[in-house]
Amino acid sequence: MDARRQVLPREIMRFNRHQRYQHFLLMVSVLMLIITGFPIKYAQWPWAQVVVTLFGSFKTMFMMHLTFGVLMLISGVYHVIWLIDLAIKRNLPMSMVPAMKDVKDAIHHAKYLLGIVKEPPQYGRYTYLEKFEYLAVFWGIIVMGGSGLMLWFPEIFGVLPRWVLQIVRIAHTNEAFVAMLAIVIGHFFAVHFNPHVFPTSKVWLTGNISREHMKAEHPLEYQEWLEKQQVDEGVELVEKEHHSKFAKSRALIIFELVVYVSVFVLLLITFVPLLFV
Ligand code: HEM
């Protein structure tokens, strides 16, 4: 018997225009803040001198730090205004709000990675890691923006005791380190270095996710989407497996394992001794 075939769109919108603009502003500003911030912290190191030379002078680099700091704050304000607008239109999505399922998914995922269970968790629109990252960015913008402004305008905050500004400086410099590690190790793995999406997920560029990618990584959302497509009964869906051409590249996997294990060892060597002083 001839099964009817229904061809569904290959790509589905995941990030709309506003989300892509916000992501772009945040990406440019935070990367530039990392590049212009760490040479301030490690000014005596030779690599920091090289970065300063690239900007022409320390003063110019510091001005760039402040400029991109303002850009980061603008991206945060843009995001909040966008959320308020969605709320007024009664269209505010709740898909990013953490729920009990995320705790269960995290435990399930740990068991999956340890080989205790065979199947990975079934995620909806956002995984527990994506929700965590989003909240961390929210928190990060408040801490880095707040502390940055206090350090920038100490005269305005001069009424505060001296030790407050000293703590603020420690918070700014330490949170900068955490933010850099979270972005370069965690976020970059999820959207660039994971062999399934290597060299990059295209969502931040085109806003679209392929059907296969959505089915593999957000199967519950995919099911909901499929139901909305009103696929007729008896219709055979034309489905492909989701595979980046690097998904099974041994060379890439070994290279990344070496890099990630080296970074992990370096972090242990740097931070574990601090626990004993
Ligand atoms: C992700 C965002 C940011 C990162 C990664 C970052 C990173 C850094 C780092 C590593 C330093 C050197 C701290 C030290 O000397 O120990 C620094 C200093 C500084 N940053 Fe940021 N920063 C960020 C956001 C901002 C923002 C939003 C502002 C202002 C609006 C700002 C203003 C400053 C100022 C004024 C200093 C000099 C602090 C001092 O007097 O020691 N930063 N930043």
Layout of helices and strands:
Elements: E1 4-6, E2 11-13, H1 17-41, H2 46-55, H3 58-88, H4 100-113, H5 128-152, H6 162-193, H7 203-206, E3 208-210, H8 211-217, H9 219-228, E4 235-237, H10 250-271
Parallel strand pairs: 1-4
Antiparallel strand pairs: 2-3
The structure holds protoporphyrin IX containing FE.
Verbal overview:
- The chain has helices at 17-41, 46-55, 58-88, 100-113, 128-152, 162-193, 203-206, 211-217, 219-228, 250-271, and strands at residues 4-6, 11-13, 208-210, 235-237.
- The chain contains 10 helices and 4 strands; from the N terminus they run ββαααααααβααβα.
- The chain is mostly helical and 277 residues long.
- The longest helix is centred in the middle third of the chain and has 32 residues, at 162-193.
- The model has no long low-confidence stretch (mean pLDDT 92).
- It is globular.
- The strands form 2 sheets. Strands 1-4 form a two-stranded parallel sheet. It has a two-stranded antiparallel sheet with strand order 2-3.
- It has one domain: Fumarate Reductase Cytochrome B subunit (Up-down Bundle), CATH 1.20.950.20.
- Helix content is 65%, strand content 4%.
- Helix 1 runs antiparallel to helix 3 and helix 5 (128-152) runs antiparallel to helix 6.
- Bound molecules: protoporphyrin IX containing FE.
- Protoporphyrin IX containing FE binds next to helix 1, helix 3, helix 5 and helix 6.
